Amino acid sequence: MQNNTNHTDPGDSFSTTFGFTKILSISSLVLILATGLVLSVVIANSARQTLLDKQEQFATLVAENLNHQIYRRFILPTLIGFGSIELSQEAQYDRLERTIESSTRGLNIRSLRIYDLEGAVSYSIDRKEVGNKEMADDKVQRSIKSLDKSFEIHSTISKWWGIFMLDVEDDSVVLRTVYPLRMEDDLVGPERKRGPLIGVLELRQDISGDYTTVLRFQRVIIAASLLSSLGLFLMLLAIIRKVDRANAERIKERNRLERELHQSEKLASMGRMVAGIAHEIRNPLGIIRSSAELLLKKTSSKEDLQARMLKAIYDESKRLSQTVNDFLDYARPRESKREPVDVGKLLEQALVFLEPECEKNKVEVKKDYHLEPGSLMVSGDKDLLYRAFYNILTNAMQAMEGPGTIYVHAEKNEGQLNIAFTDTGPGFDEDSLDKLTDPFFTTKDNGTGLGLTILKNIVESHGGALILANGPEGGAHVQIRLPLA
To answer: Ranges for the Histidine kinase domain (predicted)?
Structure first.
């Protein structure tokens, strides 16, 4: 008997299943490839936009720092020294140029111009441009009229063809920043208030290096998308890893930028740290002061050497206690007092107290100023100015490390009192001269980097200027300019 039962061919079932899997695989690969390409474009654009945002924020920081440095290190000293700003004078122009060079060193600045309120170039890295009135475009004019800042990217690289470029030449991508320069109303507070417009800053930064990183990132994403055809899971894993790395880089960049933007918080942290140990410092100071006071009361003669030394110990321990409080207020500078101060008397007090130390180290002090009472009068805080002179003299003795000479000169000049200290030590490091007053910058192994910063704050709080240089015959030269009372 014939068996007519129908059989299902396993090959047909396998073929059907394989075909479905093949179609699904191909469809998945095509979908993943398309999704990967779209995703690569999205991520690349996001990375490019992140780069531009970061560069704009960084350019803003650079412009704000330039505004601050130009105002502090050029405008104020020039107004004090010359009475007016005239860049046609070679000395003023050179001072501005040095200020800008020290503030932009290592920042890939290709060009920098400062326009006056009429739109003419008053300063430029290329001096041939000075006086040109045709270079101020609409962005500069808008900044003059409405105090707007603007950013503009100049690129010779196509967004798409740039992906296939293995190397990007310098100056291929340049960021142009237009920023209004303004006066600063608050010179000592943690937040600088902006005053009236004094000019417009235009600078061009080469960001080709950072842009190259973005292009490399784009190529990695596209390569990952092409390799997605090897499997669904590998492709998904590759995308997840790429996205994680991209996010990690963005978070890292954001944190770095936040650290730069909140640099001032370090000063507050410094103040909190010092506050923690202030109690331990005040206790021994109190014991020293009270002991000296007790011994001074028991001294029969108030004019002998012992009595004078006890009086000096008492006075200086009391002054050191005040110094601790001043150091605690470093991040929050207090306004100095305004009372008549005889600078000649202060210098004599500091030198008398340091006389034993000078004899011990064989240091000779040569004075060149009038000792008549009231001949060198300024308006200010007696304790702060004494501290400034004392610190300069002790720094000079420490720098000489043995026998030497300190020259102290003071004279009146055009409504100002110039006090100059010159020693015969090794002098300042020329490469670090512009950084010596920066907070926490020090060339000493055990220094805090705050001595010259505090000195500068004291001088500037009195409306004066601090000038650090090396003497013509070597040695450090520290000059303080204070307005006369």
So the answer is: 276-485
Closest among 484, 186, 183 to 335, alpha carbons compared: 186
Task: Provide the terminal-to-terminal Cα distance of the chain, rounded to the nearest Å.
Answer: 134
20 pLDDT more than 70: no
Hunting for tokens 């070679």 — which residue is that? Answer: 90
Class of the 20-262 domain? alpha beta
- Give the DSSP letter string of 113-154: EEE-TTS-EEEESSGGGTT-SS---HHHHHHHHH---EEEEE
Helix, strand or coil for residue 351? Answer: helix
CATH architecture assigned to 336-485? 2-Layer Sandwich (3.30)
- pLDDT mean across residues, the chain: 78
Structure tokens at 179: 């920023």
Find, among 426, 424, 485, 476, the residue nearest to 451 by Cα: 476
Residues linked to residue 341 through DSSP beta bridges, in sequence order: 378
C-alpha distances in angstroms, 262 versus 50, 167, 266, 387?
20, 35, 8, 30
Lowest mean pLDDT among 2-16, 196-210, 237-251: 2-16
Q: Where are the domains of the chain?
A: 20-262, 264-332, 336-485
Q: Tell me, rounded to whole angstroms, the distance of Cα 202 from its chain centroid.
A: 20
At residue 26, does pLDDT exceed 60?
no
| Tally of CB atoms within 10 A around 447 | 12
Is the model more confident about 58 or about 3?
58
Indicate the pairing of strand 339-342 with strand 377-380: antiparallel
Contact 296, 310 (CB under 8 A): yes
Q: How many CB atoms lie within 10 A of CB 199?
A: 20
Give residues with Cβ within 8 angstroms of 143, minimum separation 6.
149, 150, 178, 179, 180, 200
Going by pLDDT thresholds of 50, 70 and 90, the confidence category of residue 225 is low
Are 20-262 and 336-485 in the same CATH fold? Answer: no
Fill in the DSSP letter of residue 214: H
Cβ-based neighbour number of residue 144 at 10 Å: 20
> β-strand 465-470 against 476-483: which pairing, if any?
antiparallel
Write b or e for each residue in 214-234: b if 16 or more Cβ atoms lie within 10 A of its Cβ, otherwise e: bbebbbbbbebbeebbeeeee
- Quick one: tokens of 231? 């499997």
Distance CA 381, CA 44 (A): 59
The CA-based dihedral angle spanning residues 73, 77, 78, 80, taken in that order and rounded to the nearest 10 degrees: 160
Mean pLDDT within 350-371: 86
H or E, element range at 355: helix 343-361
Question: Do 222 and 163 meet the contact criterion of CB atoms below 8 Å apart?
Answer: yes
332, 479, 399, 452: CA torsion to nearest 10:
10
Say which residues have a Cβ less than 8 Å from residue 191's Cβ, sequence separation at least 6. none
Q: Which of the two residues, 10 and 99, has the higher pLDDT score?
A: 99
